[in-house]
Amino acid sequence: MDPARTLLDRELLLSSIVHELRGPITAVHGFVELDDQHHRPGLLSAVERLTSLVATLSQTAVSAAEVARFQGVPVVVKGPIETLDVALAGLPHREMTVELAPEHVSITLFGVPAAELAAGWSLAQVRRWLAEGGPGLAGARLRIAARIVGALRYSFPLSPGDTEAVVHIHLARG
């Protein structure tokens, strides 16, 4: 199996697990704070351990910052640049531009189908995507790839009713 795609899908799955855990952890933490008459150190300790685990799982940087080449331009990344290449290759779009600014490299994707731009996802959605594919998976992979490489910016302004969008990614220059 392709290591870059495997890393993308692993991080996508972990992202959805973290999202699913945050709500219950917040609820239990609120309960502990409200129930201050019956100090429950074991429960508070468990909440702190889970919070720490979620924070660890949320970190997508897989290595120390290093310089890699994207489209022939040196950029600073915190994970394999191949993940971004794989995600870009899988995302339908009409055109891509790469522009150099003094501090960053600006990647702009034009004509991205709005259905691909998942603003968020659940564990159930990710499981469906990994089993069946479908709209949103390619956009979610791109968003995860941007996190993995340590993008300075990732945005896709989208208004209700839009069928296409423009995606902006900024990478630090190396």
How would you sum up this structure in a few lines?
The protein is α+β, with helices and mostly antiparallel strands and 174 residues long. It has helices at 3-34, 41-58, 81-90, 123-132, 137-149; strands at 66-70, 73-77, 95-100, 104-113, 153-155, 164-172.
Q: Work out the number of β strands.
A: 6
DSSP strand (E) fraction?
15-25%
Mean pLDDT across every amino acid position: 89
Number of discrete helical segments: 5
Instruction: Note the quaternary state here.
Output: single chain
If you compute it from the alpha carbons, what radius of gyration comes out, rounded to the nearest whole angstrom? 19 Å
Shape: globular
Specify the helix fraction band: 40-55%
List keywords for this structure.
174 residues; alpha+beta; 5 helices; 48% helix
